[in-house]
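Hi there,

I know you've been waiting on this one. I reran it after we fixed the sequence typo, so this is the corrected version. Both the input and the resulting structure follow.
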Amino acid sequence: MAYLAEYSARKGTPAAKLDNITNTEKKKRYTVINNALAREVLKNNKKFVGKILDCLVFEKKPNKDIYFAKTRHYKTVKFQSNKNIVGEFARIKITKAESFILLGELC
């Protein structure tokens, strides 16, 4: 996983003189790198489909039965439950992989 951010120069620093890339080019480069990252992460996430994983539930969407959990691999899993299980471990079967999240069903 990588965390991307556009570079922006701080006025008055030596690095500010090096910032000769247009904002259009910065956005283009960001998009290229982010798309490549998304493809690789999706390829890796597909390996989890069909597996049952122990996950720590860390968040519930307000007024909905949608929960988010983290696997031991620090992957985020989105699933539904009609019982509040925030702070608990849950066994979740992974049903679908997306670029930056796994979808699953509570076992």
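Quick highlight: The helical segments are 23-45.

Best,
R. S.
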